[in-house]
Amino acid sequence: MMVSKTSISKVLLSSFAILGFGMFLAVDAGFRVADKTFHLTDPHNSPIRSLIWWTTKGYLAEPQAPDIVLLGSSLMMTAHHAGDATKLNEIVNEVKHFHSSCMEDYLAQKSGQKPSAFSFAIAGQMASDAYLIARSLLVGDKQPKVIVYGIAPRDLIDNTLSSPASTETFKYLDRFSDFSDIALSARTSANEFMQYGLEKAIYSMSHRPDLVCLQHKFAYSLAPFGKDAYTQSEIKTPFMLRQIARMDVPDDNGSNELRIGPYGREAEPFRDNTAEYRHRYAYIKQKTYKSQLSYLNKLMSLCKKQGIQLVMVNMPLTPGNVNLMPPGFYEQYKNTVAAMARENGARFLDMNKADAFEQKHFADTVHLNGLGGVQFFKLLSDELALDRAFTAALSSTQ
Amino acid sequence: MLFNSLTYAIFLPIVVALYWVSPVKFRVPILLIASYVFYMSWRPIFILLILGLTVANYFFGFFIARSEKNKKPWLVAAIAANLVTLCFFKYAYFLNDSLGTLIKPLGMAPPAMAFDIVLPLGISFFVFEFIHYVVDVYRGSAPIKSFMAFALFASFFPTQIAGPIKRFQDFIPQFLNPAKFAVKDLDSGVSLILMGLFKKVLIADNLAFFVQGGFQHPELFTGLDLWLFTYAFAFQIYFDFSGYTDIARGSAMLFGYKVPINFNLPYLAKNIADFWHRWHISLSTWLRDYLFIPLGGSRVSKWKVYRNLMITMALGGLWHGAAGHFLVWGIFHGAMLGLHKMFKDGREWLSDNGYTFVSNAVDSKLGTALSTLFTFHVVCIGWVLFRADTMATAGAILKKLFFMDTVFGTMPAYATAMNLPSINYPLIYPAIFLLLPVLAISHVVMGYIDKTNWVARSPKVVKAAWVCALMLMVLVFSPDKSPKFIYFQF
Questions:
Q1: pTM of this prediction?
Q2: What is the ipTM of this complex?
Q3: What residue numbers bound the domain in which B147 lies?
Q4: Annotated active-site positions of B, please?
């Protein structure tokens, strides 16, 4: 017995579930109209205080575009923070310290003019993230003259990355940027496509973070210890409970949680993360590698088009780490990136110099410590000061 | 494929639509195929397990029914086949470890496991359904003739992974005489699914964030804090499992099928026996019918009743998981049921002899309220044994719960631990002090709503607004990563 047309229309008229669904669509449409008209939500707000949220907030608060923007993953980020902490001999707050004192001062020493250098390096940043940051934020009156992008093979091959759209950077920037041109290519799984389709169709779903922010605000207004607790920054919860919570929400960082001290103030034994990288390099996903290279190419083309001088910096790694890679992979990676840079008028600078960085400069097999950070920016500034294209870009008026 | 996944949100409407637009004779095959697809979405190889057990039990049913002399041997063989399969997948490691502990003093080591054993999803549930089937056929029920209906009975995807444990006498007729499409079923099904998702993703998943902190590191928290974690877990497991059951029942209802309820406001139970009439009802009735009664039930001597209660609950505890703390949880409930029986017998003896004051006190409004509160706390103590990863952790938590170190002992430096839970994410941290009382009150409110049939009597537009609100809340406020249902591991 088939369901007849009459019974279908009867269902439509008599079902409260269907009426409820209709109400839901109406509420969603109302929310869409109200938000477009009255700007109820702020897409820059976030329920989790991720590094991209903190850094974007810092960048938008800059009075004018910095001369130089640093991009990169934790390799560049730790070099920047640990290096500055060591040079300044003070504790640096990683979610508030954005300007690279090392770079600004060493370049000033070389050229006599102090440029401003803002770091957009974020732990876990992939080439696709770097491209998205550049096209979303490093534009218009916030366009820098130079981008220095520190890269290593791991930033192109992360084997835990399910797709470019799965990073926190993509999710956050997507809220106030138009990524429709890469919406499909940045997603890989059926689940991601379904999610995307639903977000396109249902306004409330695509604005979940905004509504969750409201939910948090409401929860805090009800909390017995007062409304002041909703500060979006300081974490007052006991350390262990907080650590456990961060296992589930690893991207959430309070302003008092990520601090780094000067090199030598506390004992920093070398952390041998060989096993982690043996695993990373053993399972290189060629699809991810190719996809990330294509985003790197997009970044280079964008910089060329916008007139931003791009310097690609091959980040220092320990020889032991390089040896973990499949035979020939590291050379092939360097050649590919260098060739791509040449084609796009960017410079490729190989800073992985065995004579410049020793074991004492590393916190583990890939990340520089405070000593290494200082050394890195010194050598980088030396190289950049000699680069005519770089100095010309810096002295240009945009 | 999890009930709280996007994949299920697409899978279910497709199957429902296919089911209702197809001619009646194709509906059972459609459901069977969908159920196998659902099962294979996790590990395709385990389809062989469920299929193998289905074929075996189908034939066992006929052998038992048709055999005159060998009914019992066939029954024993059928039960053994089911239990051996369950034990192999679920208890092999546990038995091996237990053997190791026993023979360690003799200087011997247990045999090394030659291969890894992965626990197939839902095995505890469908094995219990098979045992129920063969035992009932042995007791005189007619075996199921249609293989397809029998296969669907065990594999029906809404109840496949975590029950409710069905009875074939109630369920098979629904396959053989399929219901006509009814708006009422659609409405009830959708409401139940949304309510289940609400319970799971909004309440249980948010409570889970909070609970795991306390249960992983009890040494960091005070006795008062740990009571808070324990209450939170009590509500987490209730909302997780009853949320799952609601989705299962709602999904079944979309096809016009009724599956049994599993919960009836368990934390309003007046005593521990009442609790087991309200908590995981399909399991407790299974244990009663296929373990407690065959052991002699309560129609034996007093001490044997205590023994039967203890065996039933201990095995019920082990059914939940192959670990010592589940066994101890079962024994704890066995002991509590025994104590309750002693109290009940004593009360009846006093009443019979004219001393009615105990009964009067217990039956008074205040007595009922105090009994409910006491029962809830007994259950909570049981939950500590259930949730803690090891007996050592459970012991550490119970010690703090009972001795209230903040009150009677030295106030530790971290005693203010729970006073400022100002984490912005997830919601549960700032709201926990409000949420737990609200959940407790909601239990009472839900009791009233159920009793007065309030939802069914509301105007259509109110019911529609309820559906709309649930959809919005589930879509917007569910955590990005929703953990699996707790009972999926069993």
A1: 0.80
A2: 0.78
A3: 6-178
A4: 320
